[in-house]
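cache lookup: miss for this entity combination. No prior model stored, computing from scratch. Input as submitted by user K.M.:
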Amino acid sequence: MTSAQHIWIVLGILFVLLNIAAGLIWVERRLLALFQDRLGPNRAGPLGILIVLADTLKLFFKEDWIPPFADRWVFILSPAIVVGAVLMSFVIIPFAPGIVVADLNIGLLFFLAMSSLAVYSIVLGGWASNNKYALLGALRGASQMIAYEVFMGLSLMGVVMMTGSMRMADIVNAQKEAWFILTQPLGAIIFFIAGIAETHRLPFDIPEAESELIAGYHAEYSGMKFGMFFIGEYLGITLISAMMVTVFFGGWLGPAFLPAWGWFFVKTFLFIGLFILLRASLPRPRYDQLIGYGWKLMLPLVLANLLITGAVLLLLKN
Amino acid sequence: MLSHIRTMWLVFLHLFRKKATIEYPEEKVKLHPRYKGRIVLTRDPDGGERCVGCYLCAVACPVDCIALQATEDEQGRRYPEFFRINFSRCIFCGYCEEACPTYAIQLIPDFEMAEYRRQDLVFEKEDLLINSQGKYPGYNYYKVAGMDAGVKAKGTGKNEDPPVDIHSLLP
Ligand code: SF4
Ligand code: SF4
């Protein structure tokens, strides 16, 4: 691949991702409304899709207020961290054979590292806001991250053991016979649960928890800074969906009537829909319950999964 | 866990339900006759104003959005000199209608009264007064009111005894 091609791929992926993140504003509102027997925004443009434009314009023209009591530079920086960190994780995702920013041989590890960096934006944002609700949100975000990061990584290790590689392209190619959802169902479910916690979406939106903490760590943010958190959240959803698809649902693989990238996007959007369905249907658990599930239920489960996978692999080898 | 999955499935099925949304400007809402919307001042069957300027509505109004000034015509019939309702404050509670002894002030099924300027929401008497009897056709307050205000003589109304001569000794 020439470097000009490479730059085009990078720009193309960036363009598509940011547009998906913005478009999710509309997708989420429409879907949530449909789940609740409403219609949702359907006025601006065909099917209301221009709500995205209206919303973005609105965010741009909102007063961008930095509280005088806030830690100014950290306050400004933290919304950028979440978007940056999540976009960095997309670097390793293969959208189709050859369409990937960097096919690193430590792909999965890179993903885990980058997606955990996103928690810095929560912690720094909450701390810099100098507001007790924001700080509580940040504290919750940090401890939730620690509880969930551990088994998020471990839930992917079963796949790594079966593939023998952390490179994403290898993982996808290893699913030519059977998707890993069939051989690693427990890992897939646990990864998805951890992914919800990672993107702090409902039902695990404990750091934001409008009904308890106003808006948690971004209570003090307004204008486009708030918009960045928003975009970061939607990018996070897309990222976790894309990871689910790549690692457990055969990535770009699928019958030939759709192009490879087409399969990838169809599957990813199904998972995004699942995220929204979760938001529409499940209540938020209590904070200590969430952490309790993480350490007492998920971690042993995922360790058992790892053990069994290892044992079966050894058995098959002999 | 199973109940969670069941919940998700049931919520998913709502995707295909009939939607409750009424798409308003194209599709009008059905308003029932007793809907509490825009306020009007009605007239009695003879075309006279029903309002007698008793201030009861202004007192009953929880947000104090009614202002009026009572006056009398040459026949001793009271009517409001001006009558002003500030609809930007009105909460359409209908207390004024309940307080009114003459059925003059009434809330009607109409809510489409948006304006661009707040001042345009202050309705004066000529905006409020309509040429109709509203919800109580045939009712004429002065016919039952026991006083002579040009509608009937004193003591000749329905359920009304002729005036007693208090200077006479005979029963
Ligand atoms: S409806 Fe209620 S708020 Fe409106 S004018 Fe009558 S009493 Fe006042
Ligand atoms: S509208 Fe009714 S309550 Fe109000 S001043 Fe007139 S008569 Fe009295």
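stored under new cache key. The domain at 29-144 of chain B is CATH 3.30.70.3270 (Alpha-Beta Plaits).
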